[in-house]
Design goal:
Distance between the termini: 37 Å
CATH class of the largest domain: Alpha Beta
Bound molecules: iron/sulfur cluster
Oligomer: single chain
Strand content: 25-35%
Shape: globular
Structural class: alpha+beta
Largest sheet: 7 strands, antiparallel
Strand order of the largest sheet: 3-2-4-1-10-9-11
CATH superfamily of the largest domain: Aminohydrolase, N-terminal nucleophile (Ntn) domain
CATH architecture of the largest domain: 4-Layer Sandwich
Radius of gyration: 23 Å
Helix content: 25-40%
Number of helices: 17
CATH topology of the largest domain: Glutamine Phosphoribosylpyrophosphate, subunit 1, domain 1
Number of domains: 2
């Protein structure tokens, strides 16, 4: 809920005008995907210049240092570290210089064979400057480009070596590419502005920059983006993709459309299904702002119980998401939310949130509502229990951190001090998404991973065993 950290967001633009102001606007729209660092790399006059640092987009991309960056083609990035430490040297886009020109790369996701690749390459004498898996990709890409001098061949050869989740934007000299991994874990779409063309993590960035959504980048697709055109190159992709269900449940902006499904609509449907799976006699439905709002609206619609705001959110409190320690983040969330007594006092509440990871914040919120006079507090959650780690770009790395590990739903309800607790079922979630079960990643819910992960069960394992794989 709310304080689970996102992975990252990427953009790429090729325009007939100075690109810097557009890049900043687009990155601000996808700021929710990463608030630790921001950056752009812009091609101009034979070279790639960059500006990147720790901080929010408006703090990093400002002043003459930014607006003096001229050039019409660029990539950009907002980051929350999932692999690699949170420090300035890991900020993106990363850039390298080869004998045949500069390369810049922005990455959203996690490379699952990064450790093996780093070891193999280190043994061959390669040195790395950062702890980020993005550096592994760009160094392999630079070597391949030096050898082939053909951007498409270099990209294809690089993709053959890396495994896991990646949506990439990349500059090879002045040529801009957008790439999505063969499973399509993280979103990436293309769109058109009056001034040129765009590739970006979420479609909402197109609306805000005055653009028009064209389509999602397909799993395994490489798209070269020019000012006037898109050129598509397909790489081998398995029959079934593995779109991350969490993008719709929580990560993406409600107004973003991925795989033809708007996140807001899906969240409302989740709430409606949740109401039918876990009905309760109550006076009012209350969202946990802001992440549970659409789910709560859906629950209210589905149950016929009226919807009211139960928490006031202080928007001006310091940024909790960059606080490195969980305890600090929780304290920050408490500073942010305060119960609205007229909604809460003497009422039986249904509190709706998008998901529970650790449960500590929700426990504090339930207690806060009781102190404000709530008669009963029933909690309803728009994502099934999270029981397994994510290896694909989300900050959920160990089973020990999940409140659902080793607890029944009743025990979790007791832990968060709720009168009752109900999670949407996996079937209910899949129905709300209206995407075939086999085309989704649900690994953190059922422990079945779409790609081989040492020590973990693979998706469709029975089928794979039957085929001797
Ligand atoms: S494991 Fe969970 S969070 Fe990670 S990609 Fe799969 S569905 Fe998304």
């Amino acid at each position: 809920m709310g304080n689970l950290e996102h992975s990252c967001g990427v953009i790429g633009l090729s325009l007939d005008t100075k690109v810097a102001p557009f890049a900043k606007k687009a990155l601000r729209v996808i700021q929710h995907r990463g608030q630790e660092s921001a950056g752009v790399a812009i091609f101009n006059d034979g070279h790639i210049s960059y500006l990147r640092d720790m901080g929010l987009v408006h703090e990093v991309l400002r002043g003459s240092e930014y607006y003096n960056l001229t050039g019409n083609v660029c990539i950009g990035h907002v980051r929350y570290s999932t692999e690699g430490e949170s420090k300035a040297s890991n900020c993106q886009p990363m850039t390298v210089t080869t004998s045949y020109g500069d390369i810049a790369l922005a990455h959203n996701g996690d490379i699952t064979n990064a450790t093996e690749l780093r070891e193999q390459l280190s043994k061959k004498g390669w040195a790395f400057l950062t702890t980020s898996d993005t550096e592994i990709i760009i160094r392999i890409l630079a070597k391949e480009f030096n050898e082939t001098r053909d951007p498409i061949k270099a990209i294809k050869n690089t993709l053959r070596m890396i495994e896991g989740a990646y949506s990439l934007t990349m500059l090879i000299g002045d040529r801009l590419f957008g790439i999505r991994d063969p499973m399509g874990f993280r979103p990436l779409c293309i769109g058109r502005l009056k001034e040129g063309n765009v590739v970006v993590s979420e479609s909402a960035a197109l609306d805000v920059t005055g653009g028009e959504f064209i389509r999602d980048v397909l799993p395994g697709e490489i798209i070269e983006v020019t000012r006037t055109s898109f050129h598509s190159v397909r790489t081998p992709a398995p029959k079934n993709p593995a779109h991350c269900m969490f993008e719709w449940v929580y990560f993406a902006r409600p107004d973003s459309i991925m795989e033809c499904r708007e996140a807001y609509e899906v969240r409302k449907r989740i709430g409606q299904i949740l109401a039918s799976e876990h009905p309760i006699d109550a006076d009012v439905v209350v969202p946990v702002p802001d992440s549970g709002r659409a789910h709560a609206i859906g629950y209210a619609e589905g149950s016929g119980i009226k919807y009211e705001e139960g928490f006031m959110k202080n928007r001006y409190v310091e940024r909790t998401f960059i606080m490195p320690v969980q305890k600090q983040r929780e304290a920050g969330v408490m500073l942010k939310l305060n119960p609205i007594r007229s909604t809460v006092k003497g009422r039986r509440l249904v509190v709706v949130d998008d998901s529970i990871v650790r449960g500590t914040t929700l426990r504090k919120l339930v207690q806060m509502l009781r102190r404000a006079g709530a008669e009963e507090v029933h909690v309803r959650i728009g994502c099934p229990p999270i029981v397994a780690p994510c290896f694909y770009g989300v900050d959920m790395k160990t089973r020990g951190q999940f409140v659902a590990t080793g607890r029944t739903v009743d025990e979790i309800a007791e832990h968060i001090t709720a009168d009752s607790l109900g999670y949407i079922s996996i079937d209910g979630l899949v129905k709300a998404l209206n995407i075939p079960y086999q085309d989704l990643c649900l690994a953190c819910l059922n422990g079945e991973y779409p790609t081989p992960i040492p020590g973990e069960r693979q998706r469709f394992q029975t089928r794979l065993n039957e085929h001797g794989q």
